[in-house]
Structure formats: structure tokens, C-alpha cells
Amino acid sequence: MKVRHAVVAGGGIGGLTAAVGLSRLGWRVTVCERASALTGAGAGIVLAPNALRALDAIGVGPGLRAGDALPGQVGLRTPDGAWLSRSDGGAVSARYGLSAIAVHRGFLIDTLAAALPDGVVRLGVSVTGLDDTGDGVTVRTSAGELRADVVLAADGMRSVLRGQLFPDHRGVRHAGEAGWRAVLSGAGLPAQQAAETWGRGERFGVVPLADGRVYVYATAVSGPGAKPVTDHRAELTRRFGAWHDPIPTLLDRLNRRDPDPVGILHHEFHDLAVPLPRMHVGRVALLGDAAHAMTPNMGQGGCQAIEDAVVAAHLLAPAADVPTALAAYTKARHRRTTRISRRSRRIGELARLSHPLAVSVRNLALRATPQALSLRALDAVLGWQPPSAPAAESVSIAQRR
User: What is the pLDDT of residues 249-284, one digit of tens each?
Assistant: First the structure.
């Protein structure tokens, strides 16, 4: 049987996961990544149980586990340190069979890249367009043309290929917030708890990583016309310096530029507010941010990209008809990712409340919600099972209740 060729546009989390899945099914894969290196720069990622199951399905999950990275209490707090909601770190594991883990994005990228055969990833090569001829796809790149049986477009929020496939779609829109992210050394710090603190239109998150470092992030209401921030360290201290411990301590560490300077990433948030009509056209499928860019409020952007990639690879079995397989991919993924994206947007709207009365009502509602009910509300997200998981190993949420 002829070995079929897949071209993956984008060497991020979704693109590399798809490449691993397809390579293990016998496909010849070429990943085109416009950057000169695979870095996973600057931030942490929480891999929820649904993403870990997907990674297990392609054999890379075990290599990412370095112990429980989310110990102790996990939940929401107010700027004075009071808990709005919390659950024991083991509650997720007890309900879903796996603990969420937090790792640096660079570690995840390195793990995925190491699972690929040599020569699969072509750095410094961008995909500029394609022509689907029905029996194959001609892919135009900055290094020349490639011929492929299928193309997986994982080229990010401002996807060039999405623009070509859906030229009338309005694309991403500003989500009303901006965010900061950084990873700090955990040396000399007490054990950190994973928590997010909600103020009036502002949030600060702390996530201990499996390697001992600490991932911190913050958000604030913003808009397309917002005044540019020139000193991010000063801005973070101004907004969050008087909040509860350990936030001032972490900000102090963030402000120490010597001898270990810390890079701060700052981004305006955007999402694909209007869903695409489908996630494929012919022999081309979109995945991750290219297909359903979402706000980070549920921590599911990367997790859904991983799910997309594993489902696409599973459906593209060696003997599968490619257009039929991609139609099945849209059917499997479109409704789920649309729902999660909308839910993430609603959570962001709740977190952005700034009027004192609205914030008080929100906080009262969060405090009044039982822990078990809060966790149960995540069943449809965290309880997802990959299609390649053997039926004998699939344990339903209902069996754990």
C-alpha cells in the first residue's frame, strides 16, 4: 500500500499532536513551522483529564507525568484571600480517574517533538496557501510546493488557511480583556496552591508547575482602543500588589531582573465568536485556534487542540477515504468545541464584572454553589474519552458518582 502524505501547517501543540498521531498510524508527515525553533515560549499549561486521555491514546501521556502538580486546595479567591469556591486537589482525580497536571509549554512541545521521526518538522517554513484538486492537495510554502493527501491547518488564531477556506467569515474579535503570563523560579518559596483570584474586572492566577517553577497570569478589562502598557512589571504591581499572599511575593520575584530576568508575555484576548460552518473543506481540516480560537477562561484552548488532533488522526486511518474521514471529524468536533468556546466566553463575562453590586452578587452565588455541583458541571468537558481508547478501559462518569 502506498504510504500517504500529510502536511501539517503549524508546529504548535495541536499540530505536533496530530503529527505524532498520524506518524504512529503509518502516515508520512511533514510539519511546516514558520518559526526558527520550537520553543513553547513563556507560559505554563494545565493539561486537564480530557487532554491527558487524548495524549495517552497516542502514547505520549506517561512521559508528561511528573507527579501531582496541582496539590492542596484549588479554586477561586477574592483579593483579600477569602475563598469563593475550592475543592481538594484529589477531587478531580477521584471523579475523572486522572489528576490535572501543569507543565511548561516548552516541555510539552519538546515531548511531542521527541515522539516524531527525524525530519518531520521543517522549521522556518510557512504555509502560504493551497489548492485542493480532489485527489490531493498542492501546498504552497515559503520553501516551495508540497503534494499531500491531506492537510491539517494548525496555523493559529489568525490562520492563513482558514482565511482561504472561509473568505467570508469575519474571523476573530476582541474578547474584552488583555492578559499577562510569566513563569517564575519556585526556589525558596513555600509550596504553592493553584488558585485564581477575582477582583473587579481583574484576575490573578497562580499555578505550580511539575518542574518546581510557578506559572502566574493576570487579566484586566481592555479593548481595541486601550492605552498601550509600556512597563508591564509596574502595571502588574499597581493592579495586584496589595492583593493577598502570595501575590505580592510573586510580583516581587517577577520584578527582580538580575541575575535571572523573567520574560512577561502580554496579549490582547481574541476569540472566534462566530463559529465556522464546519471544520473541514475537502481534504483540508482545521484544528485548534485555527478552527475555534477561544478565550482562556476554562483553560481548554490547548486541551481542545489536543483532542482535535487525536480525533483527526484516529479517523484518518491508513485505509480511510480522506474527505469522508474529515467530514466525520467535523461531526465529532464542531458541536463540542463550539459549546466549550461559548462557555469560556460566558465565564469571562462573569469574571470581568466591575460594578460593586454585580461583583457582590457574583461572589455570593459562587460561595453558595456546592463543591460537588461545581465539579459535576465539568463532566461534559473533563469526562471526554478519545475514540481510540479501548472500550474496556473507558469508565463512564456515571460509574464514579
Answer: 999 998 875 445 568 999 999 999 999 999 999 999
Own/partner pairs, 248-251, CB within 8 angstroms, 24+ separation: 249/189, 250/184, 250/206, 250/214, 250/216
Query: How do 280-281 and 28-33 pair as beta strands?
Result: unpaired
Predicted pLDDT at 83: 94
Express as a percent the part of the chain with pLDDT over 90. 77
Instruction: Quote the domain boundaries for residue 221.
Output: 174-267
pLDDT grade, residue 399 (50/70/90)?
Answer: very low
Between CA 104 and CA 109 the distance in angstroms is: 9
User: Is residue 133 located within the same domain as residue 34?
Assistant: yes
Prediction pTM value:
0.93
Which tens digits make up the pLDDT trace of 310-323? Answer: 999 999 998 889 99
Cα→Cα distances 271→92, 157, 191, 275, 375, Å: 27, 8, 34, 10, 25
Within this chain, do residues 205 and 320 fall inside the same structural domain, yes or no? no
Instruction: State whether 142 and 23 are in the same domain.
Output: yes
CB 74, CB 89: distance < 8 Å: yes
CATH of the domain at 240: 3.30.9.30
Single-letter code of the amino acid located at 214: V
Q: pLDDT-derived band of residue 398, with 50, 70 and 90 as boundaries? A: very low
Are residues 222 and 270 in contact, defined by beta-carbon separation less than 8 angstroms?
no
Question: Residue 275: CB partners within 8 Å, gap ≥ 6?
Answer: 292, 334, 338, 341
Closest listed residue to residue 182, CA positions, set 214, 136, 219, 225: 214
